[in-house]
Each structure stands twice: as C-alpha cells, then as structure tokens.
Amino acid sequence: MTKADLADTLHADAGISKKESAQLVELFFATIKTALCQRQKVKLSRFGHFEVRDKRSRLGRNPQTGEAMEICARQVLIFRPSQVLRAALQEGAAGARHSDISLE
Question: What is the pTM of this model?
C-alpha cells in the first residue's frame, strides 16, 4: 500500500476531495517524521509505536574477507506492534491458511 492508496481510501471512505485527502496523508507522515527526528516516541493506539534508538559502535567482520572492522554507532527506527494488531495479524494468517485448504 502506498501513500496514494491511503489517500484514495481516505477520499472514498471520508468523502473528502482527493486533493484534501492527499494533503492529510502527507501532513500525517510529515508530523510523524518530525516527531521521530526530535527523538519523541510516536504511539498510534491499537496499532503500535515507533521510536528511535541508539546503537553503539561494535566490532564486525567483512563477510568476503573475514577482516575485522568497526561498525559505526548509528540510530535505528524501531516499530513495536500493539497487542491488537498482533492478534489481528494472527487471525488473518490463520484464516488464510484455512482458506487455502480444500476439503473436496
């Protein structure tokens, strides 16, 4: 699903213009991006939360040569799904498995 798909769904379900729905989707993601860049946690109820974490530098190996090298410290984005989303995904996966099986 893309931003355009989200805007189209918003347009169809909320009854607002395509231009307004596209602007809302862009504003939504820009707001999330700004909050994450400011190191704030973003929690979307019944969906999950995003947060930025620091990873310290560490020693790694070049897989081709086996040579030891330092992996620089960096920031990573973490997403943790809510229990509601996890349950919905499990129900969807279970339903997909059962629908693929034909008893005939």
Answer: 0.75
